[in-house]
Amino acid sequence: MTREAVLALPQPLRWAAQLVWPTGTHRPHAAIVGQQFVHCPDCGVDTAASIHGTLIRCAEGHIVQVIA
Prior knowledge:
22% of the residues lie in helices and 34% in strands. The protein is built from 2 helices and 4 strands; from the N terminus they run H-H-E-E-E-E. It folds into 2 domains: 1-27, no CATH class; 31-67, no CATH class. By secondary structure, it is an alpha+beta fold. Strands 1-2-3-4 form a 4-stranded antiparallel sheet, with no helix packed on it.
């Protein structure tokens, strides 16, 4: 199934189809990064964060911490 065909499906079917045929609209297929929960001062909430080398970024992209 092509990316365009999957994206043309109604929402509930699209979610199911993306489990089998990832479209790459959320993240590249099999892209895995370390994650943890942190408090983001810019967002003002505890949120999921991803670890990118020496940076920890919240779900909105704010830099929360730099690892030395």
